Every structure is written in structure tokens, then in C-alpha cells.
Amino acid sequence: MNYLDQLEQQSVFILREAFRHFDRLCMLWSIGKDSTVLLWLARKAFFGHVPFPLVHIDTSYKLPEMIAYRDRLAMEYRLTMVVGQAEEAIAAGRTFPATQHLPDGHPDKLSRVDCCGLLKRDALKATLQGTHPRKRLNLHTGRYEIDPDREPYHGVIVGARADEEGSRSKERYFSPRDKNNAWDVGDQPPEFWNQFKTDYAPGTHVRIHPLLDWTEVNIWEYIKREGIPTVSLYYDQGAGTRYRSLGCAPCQAPIQSTARDVDEILVELRSGKLKDVAERSGRLQDGKHGLEELRREGYM
Q1: Which residues are 26's β-sheet partners?
Q2: Is 40 a domain residue?
Q3: Does a structural domain hold residue 234?
Q4: For residue 36, what are the domain limits?
Q5: Nearest to residue 79, comparing CAs of 153, 15, 148, 138?
Q6: What sign does the dihedral 69-230-210-216 (CA atoms) show?
């Protein structure tokens, strides 16, 4: 058994443990490479079927290629695809792009982090708790309809990796949040010898991280081995740039790269060319502490 087999086996074990312990379970799918590998692993863990909903938070600023890819795979894999959105904030123009015409210091002008708080963090909380409407993909018509299920999810599977960003290195495989989705970094249960705490007080929901020990190289090695379809934005289309991490169009920047396929991405990563460049460096909202602050307050 090689190292990829070991990582796969551990992730499948975590997924099955989560399914065994949580009646109200879902998986967050950002459409990026990590959560798409997680989706692939879930299909392996449950023999081609994913027995829980996939949840995507649509900020309305995702690149069209990402949304088309999401819906194509959801239809092909026959997924229970649920989408949440901060519809009121978007309709009211309370977003970073919609307020940039305002002068600095104007009370209605939003920063990127403010925008993420509304369109990602708050939308995620409301979607997981069922306090805002959810939409579900109708696999017969290919259209999204209001989901009658408004019950909260208690277990939430996430494709976070410890090496991707500093705050994610503080996670556990099974990481509790309080009733407001807030994350207390200093109050995480110990995990030894595949023994996990899965029983919590009412009102607690638990984030589950099957990819915690995977690295960026591992992810691409597994994508190559398994032939996993990925969004074309990860590859150079001829401009000498590509995206290393995917987010909202106004808040992400490509890196200089001529890697046109998975093999060339692996060569680039193994060469050390990007060793001093953070994987999320193109995610302009992160800043110095932006992502950790959002995650402490409930973001994924």
C-alpha cells in the first residue's frame, strides 16, 4: 500500500465514521480541487452513491465555468445538490463590488472581508441551520427549486487541509462548533489512534475534515491517478497564468504559470518554484488574519 492508498483509506474511514454518527449530515462543495477530491472519495466510500446532500454557497460572483462544472457533475453523479445564497444582501447591493464607487469612509462601503462575512459566512450559517431558504437541484429538469427540508445539519464534511492555510492547521478530524457556528480554537478534543469524539451537547454541530493530512501535491497526485475531472481554470489557457485556488471573481488573482495539465502542475509544484508562495496568495480577501477571523465566526 503506497502513501496515496493510505491517505485514501483514512479519508474513507473518516467519511464512514461521520455517516455512522450523524443523522443530519452534509458535505460542503466549493467546486475547488480539494472538495472535488472529497466528493470522489465519498463516492468510493459509499460504492458510487453519496448518501448525504452536497451544499454549495453561491455568492453570485463565482466564475461561470465553476457553476457550469458544479451542475454538470451534480447531474452526472445524481447528487443531492443544495445551494444557499445571501439573497437579501445581494439584492440590496451590500457587496464589495457593488459598493466600490462609494468614497472611503462611507458607512455603506464594504471591504472584501465584510463581503465574505455576508455572502459566505452568514449565508453558510443560515443554510446549515435552515433559517434561510435552500434550493435543491431537480435531477429531472436540471433546475433549482425551493428545498422543503429546513432542518439543521449537525455534521458538516469539509475539504480543508492543514497545509493550505495557518488557521486550518489548528483543526481536528472532528471539530466542534457552538450553536452559532463559532469555532473555539483552544477547545478542540484530542484525537489519538483513530479515536474520535462524536457525541456533543444539543446545539453543537461538528465540522469533519477527511483531507486534513493531505498536501497540495497529494491532491494533484490523486487527481492524476484517479482521472478526476477538474475546473479548467486551474490550467493555463495560453495567457501564461492559471488559478491555484478558486474563489469569487472580484477577489481572486491568477498566478504566473504555463502549466496546462495535471502533469505540468505536478512538475511545477515539485520543482520548488512555488515554495515561497502561499497556496491562497491569490485570494485577495485573506489578508493578514481575514480567513482565520471568518473561520472563528463560522466560515469553512
Answers
A1: 156
A2: yes
A3: no
A4: 3-214+288-296
A5: 138
A6: negative
User: 236-240: long-range contacts (C-beta < 8 A, 24 or more apart)?
Assistant: 236/260
Find out whether 219 and 37 touch, Cβ atoms under 8 Å: yes
Distance CA 244, CA 254 (A): 7
Q: Which long-range contacts (CB under 8 A, 24 or more apart) does 171-174 make?
A: 171/207, 171/209, 171/212, 172/209, 172/212, 173/14, 173/208, 173/209, 173/210, 173/212, 174/18, 174/198, 174/206, 174/207, 174/208, 174/209
Q: What is the pLDDT of residues 139-171, one digit of tens each?
A: 999 999 999 999 999 999 999 998 876 565 677
Tally the domains of the chain. 1
Distant-in-sequence, close-in-space partners of 275: CB < 8 Å, separation ≥ 6: none
pTM of the predicted protein model: 0.90
Q: Residue 117 gets which letter from DSSP?
A: I
Rounded distance, CA 70 to CA 64, Å?
Answer: 10
Q: Which amino acid would we find at residue 106?
A: H
- Examine residue 258 and state whether it is found in any structural domain, yes or no: no
**pLDDT band (50, 70, 90) for residue 289:** very low
Residue 53 domain-assigned (yes or no): yes
